[in-house]
Amino acid sequence: PHATLGKRIYDYILVPVLDSQGDVTAVAGTTRDITEIRKLLEQKDAFLAIASHELKTPLTSLKTYGQVLQDIFESRNDEQAVLMLGRMDNQVNKLTNLINDLLDVTRIQSGKMQFNKDDFDLSRIISDILDDLQLTTAKHSIKKDLPDHLPMWGDKERIGQVITNLVSNAIKYSPAGGEIQVVLRKVGDDILLSVKDFGIGIPEGMHSRIFEQFYRANNFREAISGIGIGLFICAEVIERSGGKIWADSNEGAGSTFYVSMPIRQAKDQ
Ligand SMILES: Nc1ncnc2c1ncn2[C@@H]1O[C@H](COP(=O)(O)OP(=O)(O)O)[C@@H](O)[C@H]1O
Ligand SMILES: [Mg+2]
Question: Where are the domains of the chain?
């Protein structure tokens, strides 16, 4: 506590000063008052949580009204209106996903990300997600190499979210189009998933930093928009599932993202 400013938070950096024998003769250091920085960080987190929550509510009713309209125009056989409302629905979904990602970041920050674990077939989940994502692009061809079935125990929504993120990135960061190869294997007690694209790639030295919050590699010749939280969420989900995620890439020649994790996750994770 400070005599006049109340409770303060300080950051200390202390280093030992050694003599020629290597014995400590003194301690040198600095300290700084980080109370304001801490307060700003807390305000940022609170703002993100409230803003994303408030944005979500009107979006939910927007989606419902859009679907009602789609039904109305379908019954009137107005194909053009149905097509446009379908596109509108896609954009609403994109915005919803974005806001859900922001909400996830606030959950991670406050240690409140929940996992609901269950039995499911990972091959089936991946296959459905890939079919949906294939519909979003005409330039890319998503190739799947999956076992017929791969029974797993974990949070299927969260794991699905990771796959959606990785494949959406593969699409987004190969703007010229091309193949995207998704391979799933069982390796001992783990699964190994890889998502390979032939896009712009990731500059060396950034292969692990891209998993940090808001970090975006400056690998774009053309502007590709984003906010840099998808991989941060993936990394959190995979780590909390007892697994690992990493990237391998040659800049300009494409990237491969790998996920390895236990088939049966520990109940208490
Ligand atoms: N498949 C990929 N190919 C090239 N770069 C990628 C790929 N996936 C991710 N990246 C890089 O990692 C960064 C972080 O990705 P992400 O967290 O999904 O955020 P965003 O896509 O919003 O930028 C991206 O900005 C990009 O620089
Ligand atoms: Mg992304």
Answer: 118-262
Strand extents, DSSP E, the chain:
10-18, 24-33, 118-121, 140-145, 151-154, 178-187, 190-197, 244-250, 254-262
pLDDT of residue 267: 60
Average pLDDT of the residues in 166-178: 95
How many secondary structure helices (H) and strands (E) does the chain include? 5, 9
Local structure of residue 6 (DSSP, 8 states): B
Contact predicate 141/180, CB 8 Å = yes
Would the CA dihedral through 71, 75, 76, 81 be positive or negative? positive
User: Does the 118-262 domain belong in CATH 3.30.70.100?
Assistant: no
Q: What is the mean pLDDT of the chain?
A: 92
CB neighbour list of residue 178: distance below 8 Å, 6 or more residues apart: 139, 140, 141, 197, 198, 199
Ligand at shortest distance from the CA of 228? 1
pLDDT per residue as tens digits for the range 124-146 = 999 999 999 999 899 999 999 99
CA of residue 255 to ligand 2 center, whole Å? 13
Distance from the CA of 197 to the center of ligand 1, in angstroms? 12
Which residue, 156, 173, 116, 181, is CA-closest to 261? 156
Res 110 pLDDT > 90: no
Candidate from 173, 195, 208, 222 with most ligand 1 atoms within 8 A of CB, to mutate: 173
| 39-94 per-position pLDDT tens digit | 998 888 888 889 988 999 999 999 999 999 999 999 999 999 999 999 999 899 88
Task: Decide if pLDDT at 269 tops 60.
Answer: no
Question: Helix (H, G, I), strand (E, B), or coil: what is residue 27?
Answer: strand
